[in-house]
Amino acid sequence: MEPSPLTQQHRPSSFQPKIDSLYEQLLSTEDSDRNEFSDGFWQEFFLLRPDKPGLHRRLDRLGPDDLLQIEAETQQLFQRAIAHIQSGHGVSVETALDTLTVFLDVILAKRYTNPSSDIITVLAGLDEVDNAFLAFANAIESVVRTGQSVEVRQKAVQVAIALTAGAYQTSLVSYFTHRDLFPCLIKYIQDVDIPTRVFEPFLLLGLLANYNKFEFRNPYRSRLEDFVNDGAIQKVIQGFGAVCCRSRDQYVAIREDIEEGWTLSSTLKYIGLGVLAPSRPSTPTPTPHPTPITEDGKDPFATLPDTDASILLSAYDFTNANKLFCFNLITLRSENPKTEHPFSAFLSLTSYILHHAHRSQRSTLYGLLNLTTLRILLEDQSLCIKIFDPAL
To answer: What is the pLDDT of residue 313?
Structure first.
């Protein structure tokens, strides 16, 4: 009997997802010959479910010089992702957006020798930068405006935030000033049904409105000043209030600070008649809430407020530029009767930030930003009257 030509393969100790092997093939720095990947490779790449943590780890291991070494591959990835977004073919659009979010988030955080030119080289090349980024801006605008679902449109906003925040000190953000995103972002805000989803488009508007605003007439700043869509403004404020509540609740989750109930002893001591207080109070003496400490000895309040607080910059810009926004911020009531008003949520979050401002410079800066916003509101006499109106 002839031996079988088939050979038994040993079972591997662990299985690797197919997409991870494609990441390794694409981002390898060991290959001496750099060839353009086939259309079949990219079709498979954008049809498979992305492994965002895996892609993040592989990109994070690469230094700036490594990325410049594989610039041909990173340029192909960026250009192919844009092409798949423009195609509008189902799952590949969502995969391309998820991939670009991680890709831009990691590579734009690297410390390059020549940040602007090196980032352009990694993403598109000096010869193709205009074509690539104009196509990128058009593709993002199209998906945000007419994406197949709210979730896909949200992913497009996240990609725009990744580029805007990461490349803020370069000229790449200027492509979003040539391709106005303001109408599509407002349309997205009006279409969402969950208030907290306003966070990302509102944040993006704040970032774009601040880009080089002292060097030229920023078109997004002009848009904020001229914006009079009352319904959209109210939708923004409802979302802003929901995000403030969410950020404030993170402080409460660390330490509940509800005041202790009044007793006869505490009341007499408060008004200076402690000698008349009973020697043995009927209830235990309240003790101050201790500051919690994590297992590694760090103060958990030092990390707050978290990234949600970045929306406070957008709120400041809108308050400084648009009086209709200020009026609605003060007078608008919450859609849910059981939820506090947006302005109340903003004041509550401000009080927590100021109370813990000494814990970090970041918290101090956010506290000053909110105080500046309040100063703008109080300096307007008509708004000041509204704030102190007991009917509101």
So the answer is: 93
Peptide bond into 305 cis (omega under 30): yes
Contacts (Cβ under 8 Å, ≥6 apart) of 200:
154, 157, 158, 161
The identity of residue 204, as a single letter, is: L
Share of the chain above pLDDT 70, in %: 84
- pLDDT higher than threshold 90 for residue 306: no
Contacts of 131 (CB under 8 A, 6+ apart): 124
Residue 21 tokens read as 């092997």
Contact 120, 71 (CB under 8 A): no
Alpha helices by DSSP H, listed for the chain, are 18-27, 39-47, 52-60, 64-69, 71-87, 90-107, 115-123, 129-146, 150-166, 175-178, 182-191, 199-210, 219-226, 230-254, 264-270, 311-321, 323-331, 342-355, 361-378, 381-387
**Residue 285 confidence (pLDDT):** 47
Q: Residue 5 has what pLDDT?
A: 67
Q: Which two tokens stand for residue 260?
A: 């202790």
- With cut-offs at 50, 70 and 90, classify the pLDDT of residue 125: confident
End-to-end CA distance of the chain: 95
**CA proximity to 103, closest of 51, 179, 150:** 51
261, two tokens = 């109930």
Task: Give the whole-angstrom CA distance, residue 392 versus residue 333.
Answer: 9
